[in-house]
Amino acid sequence: MSGKVKYVGAIDEGTSSARFIIFKAGTDEVVCYHQVEVPSIYPQEGWVEQDPVLIYDIVKTCIDEACAKLEKLGGNVKDIVAVGVTNQRESVIVWNRHTGEPLHNAIIWLDNRTTTTVDDLIESIPNNSKNINYLKPLCGLPLSPYFSALKLRWLRDNVPAVKKAMDHGDVMFGTIDSWLIYNLTGGAKNGGLHITDVTNASRTMLMNIETLQWDPHLLKFFGLPNTILPKIVSSSEVYGLVKDTDIKGIPITACLGDQQAALVGQQCLHRGQAKATYGTGCFLLYNTGTAIVTSSHGLLTTVGYQFGKDSNPIYALEGSVAIAGVALTWLRDNLGLFESLGQVEAMARLVDNSLDVYFVPAFSGLYAPYWNQEARGVICGLSEETTSEHIVRATLESICFQVRDILDSMKKDCGIPLAKLMVDGGMTVNSLFLQLQSDLVGINVIRSKIAETTALGVALAAYRAIEPSFNIEEGLSAGEERIKYKPIISENERDMRYHKWKMAVERSIGWDTSAAVSGNRDLFD
Questions:
Q1: CA-to-CA distance for 25 and 214, rounded, in angstroms?
Q2: Which of 11, 92, 184, 372 is least surrounded by Cβ atoms within 10 Å, i.e. has the fewest?
């Protein structure tokens, strides 16, 4: 590390924005960055798409603008020694292998158009068991619209151009990481690399969780050809050189799904450590070490990371909350309760509690641990005293309750309750929210020094690939005390409120069934 300053670049392509962040190599020191929003397209209710070409153009803009900022600060782009890619997971892009042109918009991870595809596949399960966990021993995941294989199958069944291209061997499939790396390393015209790393592959339902290879049984079940698939690589190794943008000639040396990148960025590198990232959704990962822990309580088994092709993979249990920060966006855009997300904490502090209002924001079903795609959003407990401030506070609490759902499942699966939860993401700037999280779960909540650790995680992994002696656990600044939030409510109050939350969830799941109105049937006769 002696001599001139070295930098590492991190491409962070999320659901709502993309950015390129330049770190001082081997540290969490951000030198500069550039960020641009990525617009979504909503063709029908529950459908979410993005333009793949626009995604790549935005990423290129972020790279070039961040590099220009580095030069203005007196740095040199040539001193960027490595680049890592981290991305929204499960989202699907298919493109023509000869032209590199997309055959359809990207289908984004929270899209639920594949509900009928899931139903049809469940019907095909042997012995008519209709067990959504039928494939879990192979891939660690339940059948759900969430995962890439379902989106791919939908494209094959519903888009004639995709089916024709698949039948002729003309299709390349990739999650967002694959699409970006393919184009950055040359694309169709210049030998672009068609790869994905083990963490992204583990979210497709097509990779065997033990062998870390595409599984022929899974491909047969989904009716998909292996000719479309990228090569699976480790999360930290030299893949190839960038051939586009201002970072041309710099090696891409790391790739991690965004939540796994945050696990690394939060330094949760030992078994029993866990982190939660609060963004559009909320994602909890619990490091299980080299052990593959199969959840019997609705959690997912996933690959945490693999640092080098000859290294053992590290696994994790994951619980996913579909609607976190986006619930607040909904309050702003659909209900007009406030003008800016920056007003949320101040509004919620105007009331001492939610006045027994419970909001289950199941706009597109419930993820872990319920996995119920028919559930819908409900607000329970409204009275004439309820104000917009109570609803805002109830929305913050809804995210906290969903995190408790997942942590309770993790405790049941692993047998060891967490003593602390490392947290990051955009919502962690809200101190009241983190205090509510600590209160409603009953453990210490520790905020990261920097709110966004996703880019940091992949930057550290990228540097490790070219400096094998580098210890990732030394990548954070010394002497920086993280802010800790401790529970201040009683266990009795915590459990009572959680019980009411579970009652609200029951109504969300059964909103359109007779069970939802039992006891009040005379009102409907």
A1: 34
A2: 372
Q: Which residue has the tokens 């309760």?
A: 337
pLDDT digit string (tens) for 205-248? Answer: 999 999 999 999 999 999 999 999 999 999 999 999 999 888 99
Measure the CA–CA gap between 467 and 464, rounded to whole angstroms: 5
514 vs 446, residue with greater confidence: 446
Name residue 209's amino acid. I
Mean pLDDT of 115-127: 89
Say which residue the tokens 């595809």 belong to: 117
Instruction: Determine the Cα–Cα distance for residues 189 and 95; give it in Å rounded to an integer.
Output: 13
Q: What is the DSSP letter of 131?
A: -
Whole-angstrom distance, CA of residue 370 vs CA of residue 136: 16
CB 198 within 8 A of CB 177: no
Contact 386, 357 (CB under 8 A): yes
Beta carbons of 373 and 115 less than 8 angstroms apart = yes
The DSSP code for 82 is: E
Average pLDDT over residues 250-276: 93
Average pLDDT of the chain?
91
Is residue 165 within 8 A of residue 155, CB to CB? The reply is no
Instruction: Count CB neighbours of 321 within 10 A.
Output: 24
Residue 329, pLDDT score? 93
Nearest 10 degrees: Cα torsion 258, 426, 47, 193: -30
Instruction: List Cβ neighbours of 116 (8 Å cut-off, separation of 6 or more).
Output: none
* Alpha-carbon span 42 to 52, nearest angstrom: 15
